Amino acid sequence: MSAFDRYEAMSFDCYGTLIDWETGILAHMRPWADAAGIAAEDDGLLQAFGRPENRIQQAKPGTLYSDVLAQSFRTAAEELGAKVSEEAARAFGASVPDWPGFADSAEALVRLAGRYRLFILSNVHEAGIAGSVARLGPVFEGVYTAEAVGSYKPDPQNFDFLLARLGEKGVAPDRLLHVGQSLMHDMAPAEAKGLDNCWIDRRHAKKGVPGATPALGRMPKILHRFDSMAAFADAACMGT
Fold first, then answer.
1. Average pLDDT for the chain
2. Which of the residues 4, 18, 33, 105 has the least number of beta carbons within 10 Å of its own beta carbon?
3. Which residues contact 179 (CB under 8 A, 6 or more apart)?
4. More confident residue, 84 or 238
5. Of the candidates 98, 126, 160, which is a domain's last residue?
6. Using CA atoms, how far apart are residues 34 and 16, in angstroms rounded to an integer?
7. Strands 140-145 and 9-12, how do they pair?
8. Model pLDDT for residues 96-144, shown as the tens digit of each residue
């Protein structure tokens, strides 16, 4: 018997887990930094972005994610000692649909969808997630965004929203596994809600170096951990 046989459904974070948002971020920040003469490595740029992004999301939870991105770029640029044009900031804000999927995401999701009901709980806006879902494939029964909820993870309200929508679809909390890369946005709040969690440690090769997601002060309890979606699907679909 597999450790995953108890689950009927899986909810996924999207960006950082299924979609390579750090590559998407750097596609805009790296050329800007090089042109501005900013001497920062990629991880330094990602951290400079992540700090204001998190502050804005928590201080102004009703802000559309495209505006969060644009303001985060402006603030990161100032903190790095340079400026970014309004055109570049707006282009970054509109870039979510262009962010690439991880190479293993779509195939893993197809396998998982053959056995489980799949959902997304994401910290973006409706227009952004639409492009990403089209990239990942028609495997999700429900997609819930920060725009729909009116707040951003790790706010417990986002998980309350998820559980309410899944409850309407007949999915009990003890039959749900929440899957994500971010300890702060997904693993810790899922643990707080009493949900089983699965950490896709996409940055395992970085040995704890934080990227676009701020570091969490404590390590949440992790029930399942994998380095990739491919490895996770192998384990979760064992015997099928």
1. 96
2. 4
3. 10, 11, 12, 13, 17, 186, 197, 198, 200, 232
4. 84
5. 98
6. 24
7. unpaired
8. 999 999 999 999 999 999 999 999 999 999 999 999 999 999 999 999 9
- In DSSP notation, 145-165 reads EHHHHTS-TTSHHHHHHHHHH
Q: How many domains does the chain have?
A: 2
**Beta-sheet pairing, 140-145 with 176-180:** unpaired
Q: How far apart are CA 18 and CA 111, in angstroms?
A: 14
Region 175-200: mean pLDDT is: 97
Token pair of 221 as six digits: 């309890």
Q: Which residues, 6+ apart, have CB-to-CB distance to 58 below 8 Å? A: 152, 155
Q: Do 71 and 121 belong together in one domain? A: no
Same domain, 144 and 223: yes
CATH value at residue 51: 1.10.150.750
The catalytic residues are: 13
Boundary (domain end) residue, out of 48, 63, 98: 98
Read off the pLDDT of residues 214-233 as tens digits, 9 standing for 90 and up. Answer: 888 889 999 999 999 999 99
Range of the domain at 42: 21-98
121 lies in the same domain as 215: yes
- Determine the residue type at 177: L
1 located within any domain: no
Residues 106 and 94 in one domain: no
d(CA 187, CA 77): 30
Per-residue pLDDT for 240 more than 60?
A: no
- Report if pTM > 0.90: yes
So what's the pLDDT on residue 1? 65
pLDDT (average), residues 55-83: 97
